[in-house]
């Protein structure tokens, strides 16, 4: 069946795992109709004729993402007229995000795949969602308590809320920012903190908003502080990673191997926490262990060993060559692998 913009949904819509996706009577926006038309939606006689979407979790992610996206737009409108928010104004975005978070974790969706999935959408909204999912994933890699993982997810969702106060023309400017524009952008942690300080959100979420651009060597902003809570340090790693791997107005997204090099450089320079960067970089590299890697000269290779302290310099088996130990060669995988 075809869904049209402007129509209302005639029945409740469920995922094939039985989770309610959209309520009967939901108004179909253009984006919502497009999502529904992308998937096969059928009447299931076994479910008393309720409609189900047959390709969950793809549709589940798309719809939840769409809901959060929509609520972020609403929040952006509110923020244009208000400098502080109340609980009711952030609740529904948070609720939908929690559903997405649960679904992503329950279905073990790979973060890298998810980032692919959403790559065409508007940067800031997508970035907040990704940073939440990545930060929670790092919490999981570090074996933190599930409550802490879920807190990390929320910290990511809210971390850049202060950017909603900035003129989108500046945020999405394709060229170089002037000093004044950059100074304005650097105010987003404090603006975000002020927006949320009257809500009853966990205090750590507010710390994340305020301190995610602080760096352990004191080179960050707004205060140049060197003492940063552990969960906020995780948030900073997730934030840096997603910013590098996303398309921005002024540059194309960079490959994951490049992002790993950057994180390692930040850890070596004492800006980001090494105890967080290393396990995360190892986890990311493990994803590539079973995949063939094409080198820049077109030759195929594969990772045979990852050095825990130097995950961006693995040992490779390369077609027609002896084993290549990148650490001995003082090379990183990004320097020799085909970037995409
Ligand atoms: Fe930020
Ligand atoms: Fe960010």
Automatic annotation (TrEMBL):
Name the source's superkingdom: Bacteria
| InterPro entries (UniProt xref) | HD/PDEase_dom, HD_GYP_dom, HDIG_dom
Please state the Enzyme Commission number of this protein: 3.1.4.-
What UniProt keywords apply to this chain's record, in alphabetical order? Hydrolase
Identify the stretch annotated as signal peptide in this record: none
Q: Locate the HD-GYP domain: which residues?
A: 98-295
Q: Which Pfam families match?
A: HD_5
GO MF: hydrolase activity
Q: Which PANTHER family match?
A: CYCLIC DI-GMP PHOSPHODIESTERASE PA4108, CYCLIC DI-GMP PHOSPHODIESTERASE PA4108-RELATED
Q: What is this protein called?
A: HD-GYP domain-containing protein
Can you name the source organism?
Heyndrickxia faecalis
């Amino acid at each position: 069946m075809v869904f049209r913009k402007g129509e209302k949904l005639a029945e409740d819509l469920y995922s094939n795992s039985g989770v309610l996706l959209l309520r009967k009577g939901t108004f179909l926006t253009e984006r919502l109709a497009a999502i529904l038309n992308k998937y096969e939606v059928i009447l299931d006689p076994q479910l008393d004729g309720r409609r189900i979407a047959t390709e969950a979790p793809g549709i589940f992610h798309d719809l939840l993402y769409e809901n959060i996206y929509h609520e972020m737009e609403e929040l952006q409108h509110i923020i244009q007229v208000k400098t502080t928010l109340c609980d009711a104004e952030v609740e529904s975005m948070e609720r939908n995000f929690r559903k997405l978070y649960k679904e992503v974790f329950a279905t073990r969706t790979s973060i890298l795949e998810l980032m692919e999935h959403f790559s065409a959408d508007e940067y800031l909204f997508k970035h907040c969602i990704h940073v939440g999912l990545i930060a929670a994933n790092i919490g999981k890699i570090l074996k933190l308590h599930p409550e802490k993982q879920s807190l990390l997810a929320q910290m990511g969702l809210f971390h850049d809320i202060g950017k909603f106060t900035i003129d989108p023309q500046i945020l999405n400017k394709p060229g170089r920012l002037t000093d004044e524009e950059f100074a304005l952008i650097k105010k987003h942690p404090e603006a975000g903190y002020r927006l949320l300080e009257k809500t009853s959100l966990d205090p750590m979420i507010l710390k994340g908003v305020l301190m995610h651009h602080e760096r352990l060597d004191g080179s960050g902003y707004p205060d140049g502080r060197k003492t940063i809570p552990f969960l906020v340090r995780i948030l900073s790693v997730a934030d840096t990673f997603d910013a590098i791997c996303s398309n921005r107005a002024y540059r194309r997204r960079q490959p994951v191997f490049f992002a790993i090099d950057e994180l390692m450089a930040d850890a070596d320079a004492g800006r980001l926490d090494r105890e967080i960067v290393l396990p995360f970089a190892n986890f990311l590299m493990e994803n590539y262990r079973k995949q063939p890697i094409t080198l820049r000269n077109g030759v195929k290779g594969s990772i045979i060993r990852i050095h825990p302290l130097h995950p961006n310099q693995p040992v490779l088996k390369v077609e027609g060559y002896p084993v290549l130990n990148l650490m001995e060669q003082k090379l990183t995988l990004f320097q020799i692998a085909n970037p995409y």
